[in-house]
Amino acid sequence: MAFRLDRTKFKMQTFEEASHQLDYWKTKTIEERLMAAYYLISVAYNFDLKKPPRLDRTKFSMRKHPS
Question: Would the pTM count as exceeding 0.70?
Answer without folding.
Answer: no
